[in-house]
Specification:
19 helices, 5-stranded mixed β-sheet, Conserved hypothetical protein from pyrococcus furiosus pfu- 392566-001, ParB domain, single chain, 533 residues, alpha/beta, 4 domains, 46% helix
């Protein structure tokens, strides 16, 4: 039987079944504190006798009022005590007071959906029926509660503009990996006086999601990237997060529409696949080049990134037939056609055109390229690949991996000689800087290491940019080759071993060269013995 009582605040224990998320710094909550301080709690809270803790009461509804009262000088609160009721009865009271409210925020709705799903032991349809919502609604809210990062949840609680974002907005954000969510929150959101439409946000995030059915590589291959699971086993795919993309529980439909949610990993796997495919294709086509589709629109940073990965990229060309004169085999490295082999004819001064005219012989024909010059050009191509490999090694290199014993001196020397990554002017959190600076005196060894790691991160990016070469691969500069050799020796990258591997697997010397004279002309065959002289 219900009784009306004045209970001690310290005798009331909150319940985990309340979906309300209370921001004790929000203006509304601060106003409630002042109201209770002046008038007391007008609407009583609901409690029951705690089933496990002696002389305590479990709160069923009214947590916001309870917390506000605790911040005043009051020690008691008005309460309706439902006595020793069952868990099911207690949940029904809590549900009526907390779950069925119209003013629940998207995050509170998400928490409510998750609590209900646990109550109904994973039965989505039962949870949807209880709330009078669709299965899609429940799945979406559960996905938001489970996948939205802590930083985003905190930002929504602290920022009045983000608090106006709908569940449809948050669903798009929650689909991203947590690190990408936080990066987007820190660097890209700039809606000072407006909330973007769902369509606007969807367009902004569109390039972050990729249909797995469209991958040029085998999605079940666990060896494409070292220490990275196969796409079909990865947690960063839409089928592993029901409700974010699909409004059905049908497993076949969800699998068919499966999407990769990690744009960075997708890019790394695509690059690895193209590198593997290039190695295979070059066995058949030694003059293979890299290209993007002529109608492909590339931004500056996309173009720079592709150049760092693959070197010279042809973007002005027309389609050709394999047996056509001057046709080149080209591997597409970007966009929906990435991984395709096309036969092309470059337009203008693209790769494949000779910068210098070869000498003309007495017969009026072009003289062949001497064997020595061919080998020099072949080595240049090898070094081009080696430099790309070294850049990838530098990306993975940690401070403690540097070969030199005095790592502090080495990194500082690198910074002094090569500088650090140039960044545009950005806001600095001076409170964090001051706290770090103060702490440095308290624990100098630890903080010096943190500073060293940060400095190496900047120097590393500078080195990567410095080694990037974006011109014809057969003309890799000698000074760049010398630099990568010296750099490898200092930081502990075995450049010689990489060159040997590239010479064997990527750019081996063509077998046909054995039948060439020193001047590049074919050796004459002995008609009697059928051998070359």
């Amino acid at each position: 039987m219900e009784t009306y009582q004045e209970l001690q605040l310290t005798d009331i224990v909150t319940s985990p079944d309340n979906p309300r998320i209370i921001n004790d710094k929000a203006p509304g909550f601060l106003e409630l504190i002042e109201s209770i301080r002046a008038l007391g709690v007008i609407v009583p809270v609901h409690v029951r006798i705690h089933p496990k803790q002696k002389d305590k009461f479990e709160l069923l509804a009214g947590e916001r009022r309870l917390l506000a009262a605790a911040k005043t000088d009051r020690t008691t609160i008005k309460a309706i005590n439902h006595g020793s009721i069952s868990d099911e009865q207690a949940f029904e009271i809590s549900f009526a007071e907390n779950f069925a409210r119209e003013d629940l925020t998207p995050l509170e709705q998400s928490k409510a959906a998750n609590i209900l799903l646990q109550k109904y032991k994973g039965d989505v349809e039962a949870a949807a029926s209880k709330l009078g919502k669709s299965v899609r609604w429940i799945l979406q809210r559960i996905a938001i509660d489970k996948n939205l990062s802590k930083d985003w949840k905190q930002a929504i609680a602290d920022d009045s503009m983000l608090a106006n974002w709908t569940a449809s907005h948050l669903q798009l954000i929650a689909a991203l990996p947590n690190d990408l969510q936080d990066r987007f929150l820190a660097n890209e959101i700039n809606y000072a006086n407006m909330v973007p439409t769902v369509k606007e946000l969807e367009k902004e995030l569109a390039d972050q999601f990729h249909l797995l059915s469209k991958t040029p590589w085998i999605t079940s291959d666990p060896k494409l990237l070292k220490d990275v699971p196969a796409c079909t086993e990865c947690s960063n795919r839409s089928s592993a997060r029901p409700g974010l993309f699909d409004d059905t529980l049908n497993k076949d439909t969800i699998k068919k529409n499966d999407r990769c949610l990690d744009h960075n990993c997708w890019g790394e796997k695509l690059a690895a696949y193209i590198q593997q495919r290039a190695i295979e294709l070059r066995k058949q086509y030694p003059n293979l080049v890299f290209a993007v589709m002529p109608d492909q629109s590339l931004g500056y940073y996309e173009r720079q990134n592709l150049s760092q990965q693959f070197g010279y990229i042809i973007n002005e060309w027309k389609s050709s037939k394999e047996d056509a004169k001057d046709a080149l085999p080209a591997l597409v490295v970007f966009g929906k056609n990435a991984g395709e082999l096309r036969w092309i004819k470059p337009i203008g001064n693209a790769i494949g055109k000779k910068d210098k005219k070869r000498s003309i012989g007495s017969d009026g024909k072009l003289k062949p390229t001497p064997l020595k010059q061919r080998r020099v050009m072949l080595d240049k191509k090898r070094w081009f690949v080696v430099i790309r490999e070294v850049i990838e090694e530098i990306k993975k290199l940690k401070v403690n991996d540097i070969a030199c014993e005095d790592k502090i001196f080495t990194v500082m020397l690198f910074a002094a000689v090569f500088g650090t990554e140039q960044k545009s002017r950005r806001a600095i959190d001076w409170n964090k800087f001051a706290a770090f600076f103060k702490k440095a005196g308290e624990d100098s060894k630890q903080n010096r290491q943190l500073a060293l790691v940060e400095l190496w991160g900047q120097v590393s990016k500078t080195l990567q940019e410095r080694l990037s070469y974006c011109d014809a691969i057969s003309q890799t500069p000698d000074d760049l080759i010398t630099e990568v050799q010296g750099l490898g020796e200092v930081i502990g990258i075995d450049v010689t071993a990489i060159f040997k591997k590239v010479s064997q697997e990527v750019y081996p010397e063509p077998k046909s060269w054995k039948n060439l004279n020193a001047n590049g002309s074919p050796k004459k065959k002995n008609k009697k013995k059928g051998i070359s002289k």
